[in-house]
Amino acid sequence: MNSIQFSCSSLPHDIILKIGSSLQVTDLCALSTCSRFWRELCGSDILWEPLFKERWPLLVTFDGDNTQLPESQTAQTDDNLQEWRRLYLMRHNEMASKVSEVITFVVQWPATLSLEAGEYLHAVETMRSMRLGLQDVEFFLFKPNLSVLLNLIGLIYCIRNLKQREQILGAMRRCGVSEQLVWVKWLTLGRWSRGRRMRDEIVSRQVSLADVATGKEEMVLRVLQRGVVHEVLRVCISTVDLACTPCTSSTIRNY
Question: Where are the domains of the chain?
Answer without folding.
Answer: 8-65+82-89, 90-251
